[in-house]
Design goal:
Main location: cytoplasm
Keywords: Cytoplasm, DNA damage, DNA recombination, DNA repair, DNA-binding
Distance between the termini: 42 Å
Strand content: 15-25%
Helix content: 40-55%
Radius of gyration: 16 Å
CATH architecture of the largest domain: Orthogonal Bundle
Number of helices: 9
Number of domains: 3
GO molecular function: ATP binding; four-way junction DNA binding; four-way junction helicase activity
Order of helices and strands: EEEHEEHHHHHHHH
Family: Belongs to the RuvA family.
CATH superfamily of the largest domain: 5' to 3' exonuclease, C-terminal subdomain
Pfam families: HHH_5, RuvA_C, RuvA_N
Strand order of the largest sheet: 1-2-3-5-4
Shape: globular
Number of strands: 5
Length: 194
């Protein structure tokens, strides 16, 4: 297993980064939030999880080991593969995900594309005893929340116009200290109602 990759970022797309590790470019699938923290040409270290299938080997990258550990844990639930697990972390931070599972917050879980009511119930039943105790979620002080939310929505398949409309709709809720995962969830709810 590849536990992490470190090196200069050679390229970025909406859902992946290429990290030059000793002259070999590793394509690492990432959430929009992780990609937002990367810049081409700068050194980066990403915690990784390698998923091996019959026809592919895919490396998923994360800003920290907590995200990676949550990615691997949620995949142990029935019906949750790497793409759904990555979508869960794109919408909900690891702490928010722990809270949603431990408190059986089906509404938060169904805000993730690819998870319906029955899937949310199954995730809660299968993971509630293994998820750990959630801590208080610290709000993000990042002043770039609009770009992060927009990029996350586009990474999940929404058009630029729809993403911008959703960001504008949740902007009044941002306040002086915006919480990006909460704003992203609100934006997704706005889009699902449209």
């Amino acid at each position: 297993m590849i536990a992490f990759v470190r090196g200069p970022v050679a390229a970025l797309t909406l859902n992946s980064a290429v990290v030059d590790v000793g002259g070999v470019g590793y394509q690492v699938m990432c959430t929009p939030g992780t990609i937002a923290g990367l810049r081409v040409g700068t050194e980066a270290q990403l915690a990784t999880s390698m998923v091996v299938r019959e026809d592919s080997m895919t490396i998923y990258g994360f800003a920290d080991t907590d995200e990676r550990d949550m990615f691997e844990l949620v995949q142990t639930a029935s019906g949750v593969g790497p793409k759904v697990a990555q979508a869960m972390l794109a919408v909900l931070s690891p702490e928010r995900l722990r809270t949603a599972i431990s408190q059986a917050d089906h509404a938060a879980l169904t805000s993730v594309p690819g998870i319906g009511r029955k899937g949310a119930e199954r995730i809660v039943v299968e993971l509630k005893d293994r998820i750990g105790t959630p801590m208080a979620v610290a709000p993000s002080s990042d002043g770039r929340w609009r770009g992060q939310v927009r990029d996350a929505l586009q990474g999940l398949g929404w058009s630029t116009r729809d993403a911008e409309s959703a960001v504008d709709a949740v902007a009044p809720d941002a306040g002086s200290d915006p919480d990006v995962p909460t704003l992203l969830r609100a934006a997704l709810q706005t889009l699902s109602k449209a």
